[in-house]
Amino acid sequence: MNSKPELDAPEGPAPEDLVIEDIVVGTGEDAAPGSTVDVHYLGVEYDTGDEFDSSWSRGQSINFPLRSLIAGWQEGIPGMKVGGRRKLVVPPRMAYGPAGSGHRLGGKTLIFVIDLLGVS
Fold it and tell me: The whole model's pTM is what?
C-alpha cells in the first residue's frame, strides 16, 4: 500500500457534499478530530483528473495537525485507522472556496487519496 495510487477519471457531475470512501480499511489506531496525522496523499482536480499535489512525488509523507487543514480533511479523516487508504471527494466550499477566492484551486471539486501512516 505504500505505492502512489492510480485514479480513474470520475464520471458525471461533481458531488455537492463531501464523499468519503474507504479503499483499504486500516487496522491501527483511529485518527481523532484533534489528531496530528502522518499521511501520504495524492490530490487531483475532479473535472480534469489533473494531479495538483502528491506527497509520493516528493518522496516523503507529511505530518500535520488536522485542525490546520481544509474542512474536507478535518471531516473526512477522523475515524480512519492507521494502515488505511481513503478517497475523499471534496466540494469547493470544503476545500479552497469559490472561484475567485484567490487560491488557484478555488471553485474546484478535488479528489484526494490518503494513506494514513500514523497519528499522534
Answer: 0.95
